[in-house]
Give the backbone structure.
Amino acid sequence: MAHYAVLDENNIVVDVFAGNDEGYENTDWEQWYSNHLNQTVKRTSCHMLAGIHSEGGEPFRKNYAGLGYSYDENLDAFIPPKFYQSWILNEETCQWNAPSIKPEGKYIWDEQSVSWIMDPRYV
């Protein structure tokens, strides 16, 4: 069973559903669902995270699409929402990374200082 993401006019994922496997009945299911729904539909894989297929299969569109994710046509990838303005997109994984490496221990990101700070729950 394949999964498909429905995109709005800004390439934001507004729905994800299970559908027919590609190749079934010699049909291009992305195109078929797009025509049927009158919206752009892209196949996604529930086995994908950060460009790695969890079962060792062929990498496909970097990440499993979720509601609010965006689809980047140039990267042919689903990208999660950006939670912090300062974070940078890693185009290899299509994940957002902090501008500095997280220190060992219980740190959280502080966008105001644009740095990792000790989690106040553990101070």
User: Anything to note?
Assistant: The longest strand covers residues 13-19. The radius of gyration is 18 Å. The chain has two domains: 1-81, 84-123.
